[in-house]
Amino acid sequence: MAKQTVAEQFVDVLVRAGVRRLYGVVGDSLNPVVDAVRRNAAIDWVQVRHEETAAFAAGAEAQLTGRLAACAGSCGPGNLHLINGLYDAHRSMAPVLALASHIPSSEIGTGFFQETHPDQLFRECSHYSELISSSRQMPRVLQTAIQNAVGQGGVSVITLPGDIAGEQAPERSIEHALVTTRPSVRPGDAEIDALARMVDEADKVTLFCGSGTAGAHDEVMRFAERVKSPVGHALRGKEWIQYDNPYDVGMSGLLGYGAAYEATHECDLLILLGTDFPYNAFLPDDVRIAQVDVRPQHLGRRSKLDLAVWGDVRETLRCLTPKVRAKSSRKFLDKMLRKHADALEGVVKAYTRKVEKHTPIHPEYVASVLDEEAAGDAVFTVDTGMNNVWAARYLTPNGRRRVIGSFTHGSMANALPQAIGAQLLDRRRQVVAMSGDGGFSMLMGDFLTLVQYDLPVKVVLFNNSSLAMVELEMMVGGLPSYGTTNHNPDFAAIARAAGAHGVRVEKPKHVRGALRDAFRHKGPALVDVVTDPNALSIPPKISAEMVGGFALSAGKTVLSGGVGRMAQMARSNLRNVPRP
């Protein structure tokens, strides 16, 4: 066997683990690894303009596939730029391996040029963060890092000095079989029996679902039918549970809509399925609560539980459903379905009235048209802020579409970088970045990455020249908005200057045509839509503490919803409700 350098061995292990792309920015300490990638046909180097983009792109790829993805940064400032995207990947439970290359090993601890301590810096946003200080640690440390990322779901970081990367790897290094998939986890019989008793004792059961219901749609529907339960969801559960769901009562939380809040508060038993929903103010404190989660550390950290069940949602429901008695009464379910339909229908008019004449353009209208024009298997990446609201309320899931965002970490500027990772995974699949002007301009340099790799990402820019969600937060806090206005250029002109398709839309009647033209364009495209900065959103249920200094007169001007085709879906579900 020909001798290998540590860098070559590093790259070979990544390939064995299924990694096909390494996102990053080159730099001196990283050069041995980048050169090893160049000479390995099984993996590509993806050159981005900012390392934060590299981490976001890898995180998006990992979320879409469930498999390991990787990114890299050079010593000091280079790998420090990874940290925000790695926080997002870690909190999204995306298996990502990050390489933080380091200064020469002999200089560590001397205050050398660009010296940091990456093995310490990344500990909070990783399951595993270790320094390779000797070639003899390879490949065991890297294999351990991979298994931590895959097995626990999240980030592992390897710090590798550039000089060690260039050394010869030991001839008899130990390589073992890599774990690249996660097992199913079944709860114990005692927990299943206890949950079945709780369900049988309750007259009114509500299910509240999160991202842990991925792959469990059929099981949730069968259980809901058996116990006649309304089914609500958190934002990260929307894409997995809302489609083909005759029990849907919408979403709870700050971006919520419909009757999910009522359903979770008026039941006898609330079952939290695969959700780490962080807003305990929206959870009841006077009903019995059971929680099912594959991560035991999530159990009970948001609300007081009457029963904690450690297991996959799918495996748990497969075991549970046959054990519970079928309920015959639909009274509670039908009441919640009617409330849900009424709530949605009442607010739809807020964005449909004279919408084709209103300028600046209603962002709700743009999101609704986008939902209609986008492909049935599109991947949407969504910027944090008001775009989360429009995505939550207007994108219609169908079991094939995906919606990726910084939904747990809440970072700005995530949509464009995540779209890069999604599109490189499959160039034939439609990828749409729902960007805000604040987020897009923050990492706008990586629009050039789309052009450089001819990635057909479609950026739909909701351009209200403001940080609208921050303005809303200030209003709720009783503060005047300050420092939230952006003086923006013509982003479409910038896109054209970069070599992409770019169009600016200022009238509602041009929205649909502009989107269709962008989707027909074979390369990268940007649609810069000038939207109304006064289109804000408030949750369907607000406490006095939430309102704070938010004046009632101002509240009347704020849109509390508008949910596109979901109102039609809710009404169609009512066809199955018996009439008195």
Short note summarizing the structure:
With 580 residues, this protein is an alpha/beta fold. The chain has 25 helices and 19 strands.
Q: Got a strand count?
A: 19
Secondary-structure class: alpha/beta
Distance between the termini: 80 Å
Shape: globular
What fraction strand? 15-25%
- Radius of gyration, in Å, reads 25 Å
- Total discrete domains: 3
Low-confidence stretches: 544-562
- CATH homolog superfamily of the largest domain: Thiamin diphosphate (ThDP)-binding fold, Pyr/PP domains
Biggest β-sheet strands, sense, barrel: 7 strands, mixed
Mean pLDDT figure: 90
Corresponding CATH architecture of the largest domain: 3-Layer(aba) Sandwich
Percent of residues in helices comes to 25-40%
Per CATH, the class of the largest domain reads Alpha Beta
Major sheet: arrangement of strands: 10-9-8-7-11-12-13
3D structure, described in words:
The protein has 580 residues and is of the alpha/beta class. It has 25 helices and 19 strands. The protein has a 7-stranded mixed β-sheet with strand order 10-9-8-7-11-12-13. The radius of gyration is 25 Å and the shape is globular. The N and C termini lie far apart (80 Å). The model is unreliable at 544-562 (pLDDT under 50).
